[in-house]
Design brief:
Blueprint (H helix, E strand, L loop, with lengths): L3 H39 L2 H5 L8 E2 L6 H7 L19 H4 L3 E5 L5 E2 L2 E6 L8 H10 L1 H8 L9 E5 L7 E6 L6 H17 L4 E4 L11 H18 L5 E6 L2 H14 L4
Parallel strand pairs: 1-3, 2-8, 4-6, 4-7, 7-8
Antiparallel strand pairs: 5-6
Helix pairs in contact: 1-6, 7-8, 8-9
């Protein structure tokens, strides 16, 4: 017969065995995304293109600058910038070559980074957030789980996996019209852009839609924060305002004429 001590030992070993197996499996699962992230970042462009979720993608050379766009378009009526916002007029000629309007799917952009309008969990959701997670594949959520969420107004960077972009910068916009927090979203994303020495980035319309930020005031913040950033970071190649709704298309055409004058 087993002694009580032997019985306890057998039970302990039996219990610990599956725990160790689970821990080992969890460790393997947690490290998988790291391997995949490095693989995608180091592979050739031709090789990565074969793995894109969508075979349609846009290179930066496919997207006209604001100056090029304006020459060919019949622009919407100009929307004056906020009266307290000042620009350095001597930079107008150069900076209107640094921004773009792109109406389409942000997940098709083959650039350095796209911005995800995320929720605080970082684990995916609806709209742009869900589309980015679906196109990137399961490794994106696996990496996001290790970040343990993101506060409103802050931003974090991850790999982009099967997306054409190299990185995803996740930012959590405010619910409702809270200018200070929305400004922080843009500032923190652009700060990461500088830290990582990225040259191209695309922003969706953060906090509009179900988060309830009015479209035009949100566009004013987007344009003003990008203008302020570019005045001090002229080495950046391109910042893209990626829009989906026709309503936002009209707003951005009007607002960019004030923040990035064409003459």
């Amino acid at each position: 017969m087993f002694s009580c001590q032997k019985i306890v030992t057998v039970i302990t070993v039996a219990v610990k065995a599956p725990i160790r197996a689970l821990a080992s499996a969890t460790k393997l699962k947690m490290t998988d995304w790291k391997v995949e992230k490095e693989k995608f970042l180091s592979m050739s462009l031709d090789a990565k293109r074969k793995l894109y979720a969508s075979k349609e993608f846009k290179q930066i050379s496919d997207i006209p600058t604001w100056e090029e766009y304006a020459k060919k378009a019949t622009l919407a009526s100009q929307i004056p910038r906020k009266t307290d916002f000042q620009i350095d007029s001597s930079l107008n000629s150069s900076l209107r070559k640094k921004v773009s309007i792109f109406q389409g799917d942000i997940t098709t952009l083959e650039i350095d980074a796209i911005v995800n309008a995320a929720n605080t969990s970082l684990l995916g959701g609806g709209g742009v957030d869900g589309a980015i997670h679906r196109a990137a594949g399961p490794n994106l959520v696996a990496e996001c789980k290790t970040l343990h969420g993101c506060p409103t107004g802050d931003a974090v960077i991850t790999g982009a996996y099967k997306l054409p972009a190299k990185y995803v910068i996740h930012t959590v916009g405010p619910r409702g019209e809270k200018p200070g927090l929305l400004q922080q979203c843009y500032r923190n994303c652009l700060k990461i852009m500088c830290e990582k020495k990225l040259q191209t980035i695309a922003f969706p319309c953060i906090s509009t839609g179900i988060y309830g930020y009015p479209n035009e005031p949100a566009a004013h913040i987007a344009a003003s924060e990008v203008r302020k950033f570019l005045e001090n970071n002229t080495e950046v190649e391109r910042i893209i305002f990626c829009i989906f709704l026709e309503q936002d298309h009209v707003i951005y055409e009007g607002i960019l004429q004030s923040y990035f004058p064409l003459n």
